[in-house]
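Just curious. Invent one:
>
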Amino acid sequence: MLFLQLVLLAVLLLGGDSEDDSQEPISFRIILTTSFYNSSSTQNQGSAWLDELQTHGWNNKTGAFRYLQPWSKGNFSNEELLEVQNLFYTYTIRSPSTFHNHIRDWQLELRPEAWLSTGPSPGSGHLRLVCHVSGFYPKPVWVMWMRGEQEQTGSQRGDVLPHADGTWYLQVSLDVKAKEAAGLSCRVRHSSLGGQDMVLHWEQLPSMGLVFLVVIVPLVLLAGLVWWLWKRWKAH
């Protein structure tokens, strides 16, 4: 069918068979470019050339021919031209769209990994909470610090950066008073998660006073017990 189209277009351009076989060969080219921009958008561009002269183009939405020279229609009737145009439409619009649908079905998706940390302190009595999201594909991702269902407008989103393996990395930070950090969480939305958000809850680090009570005091008591046992052993 495609061969038939090329023959029809060549005849259209030349207006029939040449009666002079001594003429030099004429270069006739058809150029079709299909661009796949994303999972839902394609664009088709086409043109026909006689040596270095462009003779035809066509509308990339409807497949309609554009006749760029006064003689580009040849000796064909409008009905015959419409038939050729419809044949080209099949290959320039419908076939690439079908191929594009298969590409969309094969599209790779990778789930992100996420973790929380603290960054440099923004000031006395304040914390900088950082939510790290890494290893996801494709690039679009939504990450936000939350308190319950309320978005924290102070969330600061960094740039989405590429990894060497083609996946992506992002971090989102939030500056808060240390006493207000409890109850915060980081929420991640990505196409690979199947509509189920990833939620990481911030766990308040123990205060220095609690660390002292839990670690230092038992060590002091243990040292005292050892000293008392040593004194008793020495007395005997």
